[in-house]
Write a structure and sequence with these properties.
Elements lengths: L1 H9 L5 E4 L6 H7 L3 E4 L13 E3 L8 H8 L4 E3 H10 L3 E6 L4 H14 L5 E3 L10 E2 L5 E5 L4 E3 L2 E4 L6 E6 L13 H13 L6 E5 L3 H7 L6 E5 L6 E5 L5 E5 L2 E5 L6 H16 L4 H8 L10 E6 L2 E6 L4 H14 L4 E6 L12 H8 L4 E4 L16 H10 L3 E4 L3 H10 L1 H4 L2 E6 L7 H9 L1
Parallel strand pairs: 1-2, 3-4, 5-8, 5-11, 6-8, 11-12, 12-13, 13-14, 18-22, 19-20, 19-22, 20-21
Antiparallel strand pairs: 6-7, 9-10, 14-15, 15-16, 17-18
Helix pairs in contact: 1-2, 5-8, 6-7, 8-9, 10-11
């Protein structure tokens, strides 16, 4: 919401907002732009009446400002509607979607386009290595991270359905957001609705190795470009025996050298390369630019090394993301212990549905430290992820694992045993504030 507020203000509108609390980096961005944020929700915040009330998807129908706005017949819209009507407008929108990899792929595409002089607009779900992750731009292209999560309390469909895709990038489709979707088929239905919006002159760029993506895409009679390990992909990813990667298109091969580590980022780069190829950028030119791409915040972000341990902050919360992050750390930091501290922060990660998947993912680490599920008071019995049982199962696999009943206890354990972990890579995984802890820890121990 903060980035959208800034973009709207830069278009010449007067913008204010309200929230329970606003913290860095959002508060810093808003303060720099002179946007006033009122703490708490109160009907007085809507007096005098604004021309437009923009509602975020975390706002319930019972919110006092939402109730007041409806009672007074004020014009209410969702954030995605504002993005479409005011920011995207008639531009060609590149909508990057998928359960995983959205943020990094959106940033990669934006970075390449910007570097090559296209002057794109973009809206990325995290700060990047080069700016705050958003820009109005001047060119005809707008790159946006397309989330499948619901739009608002009055629109339960995916945000990405509002973004008028000229190109729809689909990295993968898995079950997630169990508070919104009852099953995988419900998730796939949103993606089916998305590709119907792509015009005939546009394109669908998709991960061919994912059967869920193929189910959604392959019967559609529109321009499609696929990337993946399969030999029938339009852009084939090949991993050589020495661990290096190349992209193949027909008889041509292109070496892949990225400024990021992790095989999942090779896949993100493939999606980026194919998207740019559709726009007329040669494959070798995109890969040349991507060598200088340094990623986004909280995606395997290196915090620093202190007392023999390298601290890493990561956003991973779905078990597939956890697995990809641990694999990347093991491959890139051979010979060092991999210590993973994890907070199940989302509704889905707080539930037992992913127990076996987390067991598989964490089994690659040397030490696993588990915080309690964030939504532990929302679920009961077998529906709640049992982190104690998860730690016990990991111990039986030979993994040193321990669970705690509070984040405070976990932090105390980490700090009292910090030097015993060395030489380690200590990764802190969470989709919430917990992933800021390694930054705090680094400053305190430095």
């Amino acid at each position: 919401m903060s980035k959208v507020a800034v973009l709207i203000k830069r278009l010449g509108y007067y913008v204010t907002g309200s929230d329970k609390g606003v913290y860095p980096p959002a508060s810093t961005i808003l303060e720099k732009e002179g946007i006033k944020v009122l703490k708490g929700f109160n009907t007085n915040n809507l007096i005098p009446h604004p021309d437009l009330v923009v509602v975020g998807n975390a706002v319930p129908k019972s919110n006092p400002e939402a109730v007041y706005a409806e009672e007074k017949n004020l014009k209410i819209v969702s954030m995605p509607e504002v993005i479409r009507k005011f920011i995207i407008r008639e531009r060609k929108s590149i909508v990057v979607t998928g359960t995983h990899g959205k943020t990094t792929t959106t940033a990669m595409i934006s970075f390449v386009l910007q570097t090559l002089g296209y002057k794109p607009g973009y809206l990325i779900g995290s700060d990047t290595s080069w700016d705050d992750g958003f820009s109005l731009g001047e060119g005809e292209l707008f790159v946006i991270e397309g989330d499948e999560y619901n739009t608002s309390y009055f629109d339960r469909h995916a945000k990405f359905l509002h973004y008028n895709p000229y190109i729809a990038v689909i990295n993968n489709i898995e079950y997630d957001h169990s508070d919104i979707f009852a099953n995988l088929e419900n998730v796939k239905s949103e993606f089916e609705s998305l590709i119907k919006l792509v015009p005939q002159e546009g394109s669908i760029v998709y991960w061919i190795d994912d059967p869920n993506v193929r189910d959604v895409v392959e019967s559609v009679n529109k321009t499609k470009l696929s990337f993946g390990y399969r030999s029938d992909a339009d852009l084939v990813i090949v991993r050589k025996k020495n661990g290096a990667f190349i992209f193949k298109q027909g008889n041509r091969s292109y070496p892949v050298k990225l400024g990021l580590f992790g095989e999942h980022n090779v896949r993100n780069a493939a999606a980026t390369t194919l998207t740019l190829y559709y726009l007329g950028v040669p494959i070798e030119r995109t890969l040349e630019v991507l060598r200088d791409f340094r990623g986004v915040k909280r995606r395997l972000e290196i915090v620093g090394e202190i007392r023999g341990n390298l601290l890493v902050s990561d956003f991973a919360h779905h078990p597939t993301e956890v697995l990809a992050s641990i694999k990347a750390l093991k491959e890139n930091f051979k010979g060092r212990n991999i210590v993973v501290a994890f907070e199940p922060r989302t509704v889905s990660s707080s539930r037992s549905i992913f127990f076996d998947d987390y067991l598989k993912a964490f089994s690659l680490a040397d030490t696993v430290i588990l915080a309690p599920p964030y939504y532990r008071f929302r679920f009961k019995g077998q529906e709640l992820l049992d982190t104690k049982s998860l730690a016990q199962r990991l111990c039986k696999l030979g993994i040193r694992a321990i669970s705690f009943s509070s984040v405070a206890q976990l932090k105390k354990f980490v700090e009292s045993n910090f030097e015993k972990f060395a030489p380690a890579v200590m990764a802190f995984l969470s989709s919430g504030d917990f992933s800021n802890y390694p930054f705090e820890l680094f400053k305190r121990l430095k």
